[in-house]
Predict the structure.
Amino acid sequence: MPPFWYTALAMNKAFVLAMAAYAAALWAAGLGLKRKAGSLDAFFLASRELGAGRVAFSLCASWIGAASLLVSTDEACRDGLGAIWIVGVPAVATLLILTLLARPIRAAAGLTPSEIMARACGKTAGLMTTVLVVWYMTVLAASQMVAAGPFLGEFLKLAPLPSLVLAAAIVMVYSAAGGLRAVARTHVLQFALLLAGLVGMVVALTGRTTWGAVKAAAAAGGKAGFLDPLAGGPRDMLIALSFVLAWTVSPIAWQRMQAARSEAASRRGTAGAAILLGLFYSGIVVAGLFFLPLFPDRGTGAPLVTRFIALSPKSGLSALLFVTVLAAIFSTMDAALNAGAFTLTKDLAAPRAAAGTEGRPLRLARASTAALALVALLIAARLGDILKTLGLASAIMAEGLLVPGVAALFLKKKAPLAGLLGLGLGGAYAILSFLGEAGLPILPIPAWPRSLPLGLGLGAAGFAVGLAVERARASRRAPETPSS
């Protein structure tokens, strides 16, 4: 029996060659560094030398994942303008919030979210934060692998497992070797591909159909609220809220803001990314609307972008869109693995290693990246829904870390009980919800996103109660002021 790569090449040479060229370009960009990472600070924070443009491009590329291209277009074709709430609105809203938080986030430069939490709420809270962050980053990477498996299988004619392994291996080569500096360099290339692919797809769609045909297809399908962005109601709002709350404390965003060369560069980078992503997601929704006349049944199984690529498999546009989808998947996957390894290496693997030492800490950083990729592969094999996997990942941060994580930036006195209760109640609920969705139900928890309000409330209430108890204890311990 011939090896799988020979079979793939023989069956679909154009896509195999496009992927090979793309992988080579990524490796050239990611590994072609004049200065190699010599410390953890250089490996995970690019020596804090990223300019505003690099920050903006890396944030955009990290945010535009499989949910952006594959899920949002499907949602727009099915539900209309309401799809802008799936990823677009929360992405822009989150970046505007982060622009306002640039100063306290920059003040904690070099610290992982776990170290920030440990400083404000004690070591146990810091350890719990490590578990939540590493779990979130791993599940986020898994959500991209969930997309990569069937997508590569469709065009390279591979089984799901080899497709997942191939995608992870390409990302591992540059992310484990060069760290954030390499990832940020590839993100410039990947964001350019994402823009080119989106523009090419929208132009091609408007050449195949018209706005009148879109409205006629919506009317024929009984889609009364197709052009109403608020038609999705509570479901869309809960999804948007889940993502905003989670991404506000996203280690990926904080890492890039801390890696900026100055506070001004950090603010300009996040604000610029908000503008670029607003335009990008508007284009994504437009593309989804124009898919409706071409695929009125929406089909089953394969995402619409995948079906559109398959319409003309030998065209240059199809090759470009094929690489564009890979750019969306890889740019989010590498960001998640790098940010997760940052926390894992500093907080668990090398807690006593000085940031400037060479040798063992860097080997641990690369090993951590590889280990997270392996675990993400196992999760991806278990969960098959991109949006749900991404949503469950966001719930981990929104319910467990949002309130304690933001508060930790501003607390002047340690609040260990508040951190433990907030992280414990919210984080435990999120993990139980994840296990239920993975087929291991322990408690009867509603499916995501309906699970969000209770989980968020538990985390916030736990933190508030713990803080109140600690403040009450402190006031009782304070010496009374003698009366005059």
